[in-house]
Write a structure and sequence with these properties.
Blueprint (H helix, E strand, L loop, with lengths): L1 E6 L3 H15 L3 E5 L10 H6 L3 E5 L7 E5 L4 E5 L15 E6 L2 E7 L9 H20 L6 E6 L23 H13 L1 E3 H5 L26 E6 H4 L2 E6 L15 E5 L1
Helix pairs in contact: 3-4
This protein binds one DNA strand of 15 nucleotides through loops.
Length: 259
DNA sequence: ATGGTAGCCCTGCTA
């Protein structure tokens, strides 16, 4: 099974690039973030014609997450649901579905804006709720994969220059601890299983200042996988070509192969 | 030079 995650930064603007990606990437499951669409505007029929079932959790102007699957898609869930207090209530940031026996979760973690803001504090809370939500619905022995834009670079080698991020979000100890808490529950940063200690592998480059061509990127699009999924992992890659050309997203897809 | 670009419900906010 080949599974990918991609923050498309508006599916309306990016649909041609997403269709192109589906045409060459041979992916079975795709987690999308920042569709920026209402559910009504989500192009489910387009994906159906390309062979993919889909589920979308959207709100319109901002956020929005989806899962596409050509290997089955069942038991969809939208947001944290009853029993959880979402620190970003009203935002469409999580959708889940079971695809060929794997519980797939597509997440768009809040950006956090700046360290000294309420948005940052609620970003940390959102991570805590995600962990509680996982623990409430699953055990680490389940086949679970949470893919998405985590808006956190887990290690110093996940940013182009850690000194340039002094005082910034995405690299703070508290944000990394929030990711570590998910891992402590029983998940693994799958990309680093394939590329331990390899520098310069990013999934996001700011549109501004020519960051992509200057290799000023960050690895913030992650797949956290439970043990049984991690054991099936054979390969991973960033599709950097998707960041090039006409009207690219500022994120590239990250692709994972499971035996 | 506190910049730059791209997206949205586009003259302001979000990332």
């Amino acid at each position: 099974m080949r599974i990918a995650t991609w923050n498309v930064n508006s599916l309306k603007a990016r649909l041609p690039r997403v269709e192109e990606f589906l045409g060459y990437a041979d992916v079975d499951v795709v987690c999308l973030q920042e569709t920026k669409l209402s559910d009504k505007a989500f192009p489910a029929l387009t994906f159906q014609e390309l062979g993919y079932d889909s589920v979308h959790h959207g709100q319109g102007q901002w956020n929005g997450v989806a899962i596409l699957s050509r290997v089955g898609l069942s038991d969809p869930a939208f947001g944290f649901g009853d029993g959880f207090t979402d620190p970003y209530e009203g935002d469409a940031r999580l959708v889940a579905a079971t695809c060929d026996g794997v519980r797939v979760v597509s997440v768009y973690v809040p950006n956090g804006r700046a360290v000294d803001t309420d948005h940052y504090e609620r970003k940390l809370q959102w991570f805590a709720v995600l962990r509680d939500w996982m623990a409430a619905h699953h055990t680490p022995d389940d086949a679970v994969a949470i893919l998405g834009d985590y808006n956190v670079a887990p290690g110093d080698d996940d940013v182009w220059n850690i000194e340039a991020f002094a005082g910034s979000t995405h690299v703070t100890p508290n944000e990394r601890a929030a990711v570590d808490a998910l891992c402590a529950w029983g998940l693994t940063d799958a990309f680093r299983v394939v590329y331990p200690g390899v520098d310069g592998l990013y999934s996001y480059w700011d549109y501004r200042a020519g960051d992509f061509h200057q290799h000023r990127g960050m690895r913030i699009d992650l797949a956290l996988t439970s043990r049984s999924v991690t054991e099936r992992l054979t390969w991973a890659v960033v599709d950097r070509n998707a960041r090039k050309g006409t009207q690219p997203s500022d994120h590239a897809p990250v692709i994972f192969d499971l035996a």
